[in-house]
Amino acid sequence: MVSIKALKYLKDLCELQSDIITGGILYLITEGDIFTWRKSSKDFDLNLFHIGEKIDINSVVGKAIKENKTIFENIPRSLYGTRLSTIAEPLVNCEGIAVGAFSIVIPKIHPVAKAFMDFAPIIAEMFPEGSCFILTDLNKIVSIQSSKKFKMPLLKIGDQLKEDFITAKVINSKQPRVEEVDSSVYGVPVLVTGYPLFDEENSYEIVATLCIVIPKQAASNLRNMSSNLENSLTGISAAIQELAASASSIHTNEQQLNHEIKEVINLSEEINEISHFIKKVADETKMLGLNAAIEAARAGEAGKGFGVVAKEIRRLSDQSKGTVPRIKKLTDNIKIKVSESSKKSQSSLSSSQEQAAATEEIAASIEEITSMSEELNKIALEL
C-alpha cells in the first residue's frame, strides 16, 4: 500500500524512470474511481486509461481498491490487442482506507523478444554469407537485425505481415517452417526459417515469431555449376559412346580388310604359279617348234609349209615366255604393295584396338565423374 501523502514523490520517481525501463512502461494514478494522472514511456503508450475516465470496478485497479491489497494480473491479447502485465497498489489515507490506486502497466514480452537485441547482432554475423533476423508479433514486424554482409531493405519495422510471408504461415500452423525463395523476391536466393514463440504460461498460445533469412548465393552457384557439369558430362559420355561404337566398327572393318589383303596375297601367289606354268609351256612349245623345224628341213619341199608353222610356234613361244617376267614383275609389285598395306592394316588394327580400350577407360572415367557430379549436386541441394 502507498500513502496518499507520497503521491508527489511517487510521480517524480515515475517521471525519472519512465524512459529507462526496457520495453517501456505506463504509470497510472487513480483517485476514487477516476484516472487522475498517467505517465508513459516514449516507446510504449497505449491509447487507453485516459485522465478523467472512470475505472472498471472489475479491473485490476477496481479490485485493488475494493480489496485494499496489491493485485497482479496478466491481461491477454484479446482484451486490448496486446499482452500486458499489470500491478495495482492501493493508495490509502491516514486511516489506511483505500481511496485510490497506483498502477503499473508493462508490455508482456516473450523472453526471446526481450533478448533479441542481445543475441541477434552477434549470431547474424556468424553465417558465412550473412543473415537477417526478423522478430514479429501476430500482425507486424517488430524488430529487424541484419548482418554487415546481407541486408533486406524491402522489409521494415512496422510492416504488416503478408499472407504469403513465412511468418504468417508459422502463425497459422503453429509449426516451424523452412522455405527456399529464389532471387526474384530479394535479389538473391535465400533460405527462410520461421519459428513460433509461445506464451510462457500457455504452450498452445502463439504470441510471436522469430524468422531467420540466410542468403544461399554460393549454394545456388554451386548447384548451377554442378548441374551444368552433369549436363556436360552427359553430353561427353554420349559422344564417347558414339566414338566407342565407331572404334568398334573400325576395328571390325580393319579385321575384314586384313583378311581380304591376305586373300590378295594368296591370289598373287597363284598368279606366280600360273606364270611358272606358262614359262614351262613356252619352253616346251619352243622345243617342239625347233624339232618341227628340223623335221620340216629334212622333208624338203614337202615340209616347207610345216616349217612356216613351226617358225610361228617358236615366235609365239618367245612372246609367251617374254610376258612371264612382266607378269612376275607386276605380281611382285602387287605383293610389295599388299605387304605394305598389310603392315599398315596390322598397325591400324592394333591402333583401333588400343583406341577401343582407351575409349572404354574414358567412358568408365566419365561415368565415375558423372556419379561424383550427381553427389555434388545433392550436397548443393542440402546447403
UniProtKB/TrEMBL annotation:
SMART domains listed in its UniProt record: MA (SM00283)
Domain Methyl-accepting transducer: residue ranges: 216-383
Cross-referenced Pfam families: MCPsignal
Keywords noted in UniProt: Transducer
Protein name: Methyl-accepting chemotaxis protein
